[in-house]
Each structure stands twice: as C-alpha cells, then as structure tokens.
Amino acid sequence: MKKNVSKVFFIAFLLILNLSSISAQSFPQGSTSGTTQMNSNVPSPTIPNVSIEITQPESGEEVAFSIRVLLLLTILTLAPSILILVTCFLRFSIVLDFIKRALSLQQVPPTAVLNGIALFMTLFVMWPTFSTMYEKSFKPLSQGEIGIEQAYEQAETPLRMFMYSQMSEDTSYIKMFMNMAKLEKPNTLKDVPTYILVPSYILHELTVAFKIGVLLYIPFIIIDMIVASILMSMGMMMLPPVQISMPFKLILFVLIDGWGLLTQQLFISVIK
Q: Is the pLDDT of residue 129 over 50?
C-alpha cells in the first residue's frame, strides 16, 4: 500500500515538472521574470478632433433650409402618433379594448397583442392608400423628379381622401371646427384645410369606436344581470357575479366565432 502511494506521489511530481517547463516555454521571453516590455513599434492611438461651429447664415436660403430640416426632424419624431391618429388604427384599438373589458378579461389577451392585431388590420385596410402615397410621392422624390413640397402635397392627397371618405355620411365635426375657426362653408374637399380635417376625423373615429363598444357591451351586460339575479335569489350575495358570468361570456363568444365576426364587421365599417 505504501509503495502504491509513493508511486502516485512520484508520478504527480513528474507531471508538475512537465507543466512548469511547458508554461515557461509558452510565455514570451521575460514574462516569467516580470520584465516583459511593450513593443516600441506599436503606433499610439489617434483621437480625432471634433469641432462644432455655429455661423450666421449668409442668405435667406440657408435660413429656410435650416427651418425645413428642423420641421422634418419634428415630423419624423411625431410620425408614429400621426400615423395612429390619421388611420383606422384608432378605431380598431379602441374596439378591441372594449371587447376585452366586456368579456371581463384582465390580462388575456395582453394589450401588446391587441395593439399588434390592430396594427396589422390597419395595414390591411390602409395598404391601397399607402401604395398610392409611395407611387406618387416617395418614389418620384427618391428619383429626383419632384421636390419636397410637391412630395408632401402628393402624399397628403390620398390620406385626405381616406379621412374624408370615413366622414362622408357625417360631416358634423367638420362643420363644428369650421365654425370655430370662423371659416366659410366649404364647397369641395379641397376647401377644407388639413388642420380642420384631422381633428374632425379623430373625433369621428372616437365616436364610431364608442358606438361599436356600447353595442358590444349589451349582450354581455345582459349575461351579468342574469347571473347576478340568480345568485341573489339563491342567497349567494357575497359571491362576485363576474367570476360566474365570465365562463358563460367566453362560451358565447367562442360559439359565435367572435373574433372572426368582430374583424369582419370592423372591416365593413371602414371599407366602403
């Protein structure tokens, strides 16, 4: 037993010697004695000199160009909000949130999922408008055929037509804003300024979305009232009616194919 132990220690000692010799050979010369030096041929890092100069404009064109750049950056910053407010995303997102609350669902489906559904539904509806804006505005601008002002006008026209088509049956909000702005009664769509058309469209979409939401609430409110009256007649006043009525709401919603029916009716309300 002692011989075996001595053999093991002897083999371990030999392995340590071999490892020390290999490590000494693998390191560069001088590293084992702590005298390693950096190569003097290595170039020192160069730091660029950055300077920002503010000069006075030499002509009115430079001032106009600076203002245009500032306005363009502002529009790009507000682009997501603008696209949400001037498209049908506003209607879709509000109606989907209404149906979630009517079903008494707190976390399912998540708000991010509902916004994603509303976004792709908006792309489906707005695709012809976006295609027209690309063909008449962005594409000629990228090819240098038109300027920025003409590109803005070409992009604005299809969007204005879409907003006005949604309000063609109810122009009360346009009349309200025209009266508040003390403008004359418009004869055609071109006579309605954009700053009048956009807020009118936003209020119109909010009104339509809330009307659809109220109609969606009615059958589910009836289920809540029936369940609440049954629980009170049975003396179970301490039991929340929402916990009992929610499964019945989900069963009704699934049986009538609620998601498909809701999506179809939303598309019909927008596409005319």
A: yes
What is the DSSP track for 75-113?
HHHSHHHHHHHSSTHHHHHHHHHHHHHHTT-SSSS-HHH
Q: Higher model confidence: residue 47 or residue 103?
A: 103
Contact in structure between 177 and 199 (CB atoms under 8 Å): yes
Share of the chain above pLDDT 90, in %: 4
- The residues, any chain, with a CB within 8 Å of residue 265's CB and separated by 6 or more, are 212
Query: What values do phi and psi take at 202, rounded to 5?
Result: -65, -45
DSSP string, the chain: -HHHHHHHHHHHHHHHHHHHHHHHHHSPTTTTTT-----TTSPPPP-----------SSHHHHHHHHHHHHHHHHHHSHHHHHHHSSTHHHHHHHHHHHHHHTT-SSSS-HHHHHHHHHHHHHHHHHHHHHHHIIIIIHHHHTTSS-HHHHHHHHHHHHHHHHHHHTSS--HHHHHHHHHTT-PPPSSGGGS-HHHHHHHHHHHHHHHHHHHHHHHHHHHHHHHHHHHHHHHHTT-TTS-HHHHHHHHHHHHHHHTTHHHHHHHHHHHHH--
Q: Which residue has the tokens 């100069």?
A: 53
**Which position has the token pair 């609430």?**
217
- Cα–Cα distance measured from residue 238 to residue 228, given in angstroms and rounded to the nearest whole number: 11
